Amino acid sequence: MTEAKTIQRQALPEPTLRRLPWYLAYVKMLDGQQVAHVSSTQISKALSVDSSQIAKDLSFLNIKGKTRIGYEVHSLAQTLADFLGFTQHHRAVVIGVGSLGSALLSDVGLSQYGLSIVAGFDINQALVGRNVGDIPVHHIDDLATWQNQHHADIAILAVPVEHAQQVADLVVNSGISALWNFTPVRIKAPERIAIANTSIYAHLAIIYNRMSVNNNA
Amino acid sequence: MTEAKTIQRQALPEPTLRRLPWYLAYVKMLDGQQVAHVSSTQISKALSVDSSQIAKDLSFLNIKGKTRIGYEVHSLAQTLADFLGFTQHHRAVVIGVGSLGSALLSDVGLSQYGLSIVAGFDINQALVGRNVGDIPVHHIDDLATWQNQHHADIAILAVPVEHAQQVADLVVNSGISALWNFTPVRIKAPERIAIANTSIYAHLAIIYNRMSVNNNA
Question: Which of chain B's termini has less CB crowding within 10 Å, N or C?
Answer without folding.
Answer: C
